[in-house]
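Hey, can you fold this one?
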Amino acid sequence: MKFEEAVVLTGDHAKHVDVDIHVAGGGINGQVEAARIAYCRGLVAYTGNEDLKSKYIAYDRQLLVADVRRKEAAKPNRHGKARSKVQKSYR
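Sure. Predicted structure:
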């Protein structure tokens, strides 16, 4: 359903192209998001239609722009957590 919203927004432009998208890695949601971005970016680049691009951005910016947030890396000597603090004892 999440991928279909991009196809529905496309309208007539979807009838003129044959799309084949391969994704690997991540979970189901991550793969759907990657497929949506690939489909929308490819269609905007192929058609060169600025109206289609503005329609995607007005509906959901995530159709053309990837979410760059990632898991924070664990720090050394912090018991495996990214933001954990070293416990101090003064007594």
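The radius of gyration is 20 Å. Let me know if you want another pass with a different chain boundary.
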